[in-house]
Amino acid sequence: MWEIFTLGADPYPGFEIDEEFFKRLLDGYRMEKPQLSPNNTYSIMNNCWKHEPSDRPDFTLISSQLKNLMEINAIKVIMSITYRI
Question: What are the CB-based long-range contacts (under 8 Å, 24+) for 3-11?
Fold first, then answer.
């Protein structure tokens, strides 16, 4: 998802992938929110990056969350066109 919202940028820009990099990940470092990413989408990304695999959402949940966000955004667009908000 991060790559989508950065229009195909390489993940972890400016980082050399070495032992120090992996230590930073273990210490909790996560990539910053891409400029084009809404906050709620970035929240989903952060959940996918949790340290413990059992704490990460499965694909069914991710799909459901993204579907809900798309529906909400579609409703907002329709309302803005209909009511010229």
Answer: 5/34, 5/35, 5/36, 5/37, 5/41, 6/34, 6/35, 6/36, 7/36, 9/34
User: Which structural domain, as residue segments, surrounds residue 42?
Assistant: 2-83
Using one digit for the tens of pLDDT, what is the confidence trace for 48-81? 999 999 999 999 999 999 999 999 888 888 888 8
Counted domains in the chain = 1
Q: What is the pTM of this model?
A: 0.81
